[in-house]
Each structure stands twice: as C-alpha cells, then as structure tokens.
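thread: overnight batch results

M.L. [08:02]
morning all. the overnight job finished for the chain we discussed friday. pasting input first so we're all looking at the same thing
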Amino acid sequence: MLKTLSEKDIQRYARQIILKNIGLDGQKKLLMSKVFILGMGGLGSPVSMYLTSAGIGYLGIADFDKVELSNLQRQVLFDQKSINKPKVDIAKKKLLLMNPKLKINVYKNKITKENVGKIIKKYDVIVDGSDNFETKYLINDSCVKNKKTLISAALRGFEAQITTIKGWVKSKNNPCYRCMFPKINQDNQNENYQDCGIMGGIAGIAGSLQSVEVIKDILGIGKNLVGKLIILDLLLNRFKEISFKKNKKCPICN
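M.L. [08:03]
and the structure it wrote out:
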C-alpha cells in the first residue's frame, strides 16, 4: 500500500477521504487497485469515468468496436469527433484528461474463451458492461474459475439490472450468473440488449451503481449485492430486489 498521499491527492479526493468508511487508508487502497471493464458502451462509459474520478489506480478496458453515431445517445465518453475511431483509444484519451495519474491497459481484440482468463487474472474486480448473454456467460464462468468479483449489469428500455457475483464461494447465498439465468433459448443467446432500445439516462444510473459496488468491494465496506438482483424501472418509478440461491445443478459454480 502507498505510504503517503500527496497534497494534490488529498485535495483531489477530499470528498471521499472525509467519509468514515474510506479515509486516508481507503483512498490509498483505491489508488493501488486494479479494475477490468468489459465493454466501453452505455455502461462502461459511466463506470470508467466514476472509477477514474474516484482514484482507481489501474484500469483495463476492453472493446473491439468503433464509435458509431447511434452510440452518442448514451455512451457519454464519446462525441462527434469520436465516430469511426476505436472506443478504447478514445476512452483512454478522455479518461487520462480526467486523471493523468491513471494507468490504463487497452484490449482491442474480442474477449474470448481462449484469452479471458489470462486477462482478468491481472485485476482485482471485474465489471461486466457487455450487451449479450453469450459474453455475460463467458465473463461469469471465468470469474468463478479465477475467483474474481464480478459486478454485472444489463439495460433494456427504461430498465436496468445490477448484481454482484462471487460464485466460487461455497455457500447457498452465492449464486453465479448462470444460477440466476440458467436457461437462455439458443436462438436468443446472442441477443443484443440494445435491440430493445435503451433510454440513455438509464445507462448512466446503472453504470454509476456499478462503480459504487466496485469501490465497496475493494474496500470491504457496506452491503454488497451478492445473491441479489436489483431491478430499476424508471418508466414507472419502481424498484425491485430479487433474492437468488446457488443452483445445485449449476455446471459452473457447483
């Protein structure tokens, strides 16, 4: 852990440091932490921005797409000049403007079964900002195998879902993503959440919640979302929390 914080660090993170659950020691821990974000879209944009602002020391950002005009409605890291440029390249430049001390690794290749484990082993917490079931299963399976905390979220219309996964823990209260969503029709496995449309502000809310869950996990504070799925429906202003148990027949975490 860092021995001291500079005067500029103390000034930059003052509003966090005064929180009794963070303090100087907590801020030092954040500055030494490593977080991997899969997907730099509607979720990855706000997650990365808030983690950068909070003083996370190392970020890994992965996305093989280029910025499209339709992305600008909700992917707040990008602007008109970003169109047709790799998302991770633009994201890195924007995030370093926010916090020059941040160290960033970019991954432009698609995350696959062959490379995912090698990548996430380098990080403390994994953030799932993907938009399809196939990728969510992939990152879930690797996090369980490598014993990594996964903060997962999904978007649809005016609705957002978020959960925290520690599926490797041998307790009935620690389900993995496959325990929560065990059966997806093969025809729909590659369904893109954006096919149903997304309200831009929902992405910002869900990504912000993910960033707080990451910080809570790193610092070991508060109550996490393990075994809980929070559903926000802002069209009807409804909030729902659903509890899940580990599936005894789950092929991944049992």
